[in-house]
Amino acid sequence: MTTLSHTDSLSQGQRWLRALTEKLSGRSLAETGRQLLLPTIGIALFLGFWHLAAPQVQTSLGAFPGPAQVLEQTGQLWQEHSNQRDRAAQFVTMQEQRNERILAENPDAEVKIRDYPGAPTFIDQIFTSLGTVLAGFVLATIIAVPLGIIIGLNRHFSAAVNPLIQIFKPVSPLAWLPLVTMVVSATYVSDDPMFEKSFLTSMITVTLCSLWPTLINTSVGVSAVNPDLLNVSKVLRLSFWTHVRKVVLPSSVPMIFTGLRVSLGIAWMVLIAAEMLAQSPGLGKFVWDEFQNGSSESLSRIMVAVLAIGFIGFLLDRIMLVIQKKVAWNE
Amino acid sequence: MSKSHLELTNVQMAFDTKDGPFVALENVDLKIRKGEFLSLIGHSGCGKSTVLNIVAGLLQATRGGCVLDGHEVNTPGPERAVVFQNHSLMPWLTVYENVELAVQQVFKKSMSKKERREWILHNLKLVNMDHALDKRLGEISGGMAQRVGIARALAMKPSVLLMDEPFGALDALTRAHLQDSLMKIQQDLNSTVIMITHDVDEAVLLSDRIVMMTNGPAATIGEELHIDLPRPRNRVTLADHPEYVRYRQAVLSFLYEKQRFPGKEENEQEKQTADAEVPVQEDNSPEVVNKSEESPVRRIA
Ligand SMILES: Nc1ncnc2c1ncn2[C@@H]1O[C@H](COP(=O)(O)OP(=O)(O)OP(=O)(O)O)[C@@H](O)[C@H]1O
Ligand SMILES: [Mg+2]
């Protein structure tokens, strides 16, 4: 089995963030300035190159958007969102006023307030996606960590499931999706569904694709506990549960978290693809709708989504890192 | 005492390796009295840790066995506490918690929470580590970690204390200090101790008996040396004691003349092993004296 390490690809971002935090913790300003200088230069060069190169790329929807258009569309999308919010608020106030009138005439009348029926905005889609990815990731974690512990503890079990893991691990979300869709449609029948089917489909696809790194890292971490510490546990005659809780788990926490961070990254990537393909609400659907829409602004709006996806992915990883620092003893 | 406290009989240990079985120990016989302090000495890789692990129950002898107070040893247990060659503390626990893990396990029923706390602190005080209770492994030196490992083992109130080069990683000063503490603790508790060491002075200073092992493979006990020095022993006055000097030379002569080159050609090794059965004689070669001058105990004294 292979272990997954995510640290290399992050080092740049890490340095950048550390520079920020150290500024807060009172390091000298000159030092901070020096550490921020190179990333700033990098971003500036990229923006410059993008600005110059974009107009050269002609598509059927006009030139490829440059930074200026993308910025403009960001404002536009935000504007649409707040307009939508205002209208929704108005819609609710109108209903409330109407209900008051009805109640005034007939105190026993049944009144209700319907949700605003407008299409979800870009911001709404972001939150839908975040909800789905977290649900899928949490489910993957709940499955992968205990299973990984069992695999790591038991050599025979490990030998039995290892081939399965190796085979399922590289499967693309696109291959799972049709199967998951059909199974969800067939098995999840309820008159008053707690979850949307599209939500379940995306979530399960995310789970299936993202549980492998956590599973593998947990099992490797558990099986690689320092043999001297295992001997200590034996000399103390720790019970199985105490052994797992006090020795095995803490010792593998760093490995588990490395796996969790890779898993979360994969979950986020898979989700966007799943949403595009399954037409389930979220950022992926936003991108797909804009693509189908084909207006002159579509490319800029897709570009906004691309940047948002990247930024959120980065943010999710930072959050995991903060949790890891809280939990893991070697940080 | 007629019946021995701890007894190894005809122990053979063969490890399965990919080139077939590797016989590390052969015909190891050892009888240990209650309260005896025994040192195991021998060249690196001869099988000292293997002997210790068999007594600890962490390894199963492939032939023969180990009996403690009339019961055969086949699983590890806290009554045979081990101080491992490399401290073996849990890096995610603090100094206090490391000892607590052991105390909680061994005295879960017999001590109240308050008693346990006092017992943990008492043991950490014995090794002078009560100033760093909340530090983790990453924040303390190797010597400090080793001391916590010793405190953890002592805190189990073992009937046999097994120590694998407990002071190997320590500087000379700390080592001398801990040797003195260990001598005192062992006398107070009358505990049985088996200690592996590479340090001849340490072995002579601390032990009632030094067991010298021949070089592997198929290592066995080459010689035994009873140290009849009065207790309590004082390293400073002992350094010039004529008996002390004689004991040291006996061990040095075994290690550096009879078992000089571990892993040399088979023939010579067999001859050396045979030689080792011959009793020790006075030996004053200049080479031996030179080596002894490098010992830390001498420098402290
Ligand atoms: N699990 C094992 N499998 C195979 N060979 C082993 C195993 N454990 C120990 N050995 C071999 O047994 C011999 C004795 O090892 P042991 O660790 O007991 O030596 P030692 O005397 O403690 O050495 P040192 O002083 O360096 O700690 C060595 O040759 C070692 O290679
Ligand atoms: Mg050893």
UniProtKB/TrEMBL annotation, chain A:
It comes from Marinobacter azerbaijanicus. The chain crosses the membrane at residues 36-53, 126-153, 174-190, 202-226, 247-278, 298-316. It is found in: Cell membrane. It comes from the Bacteria. It holds the Pfam family BPD_transp_1. It is a multi-pass membrane protein. Residues 126-320 form the ABC transmembrane type-1 domain. PANTHER family: ALKANE SULFONATE ABC TRANSPORTER-RELATED, MEMBRANE SUBUNIT, NITRATE IMPORT PERMEASE PROTEIN NRTB. This is ABC transporter permease. Its main location: membrane. Gene3D superfamilies: MetI-like.
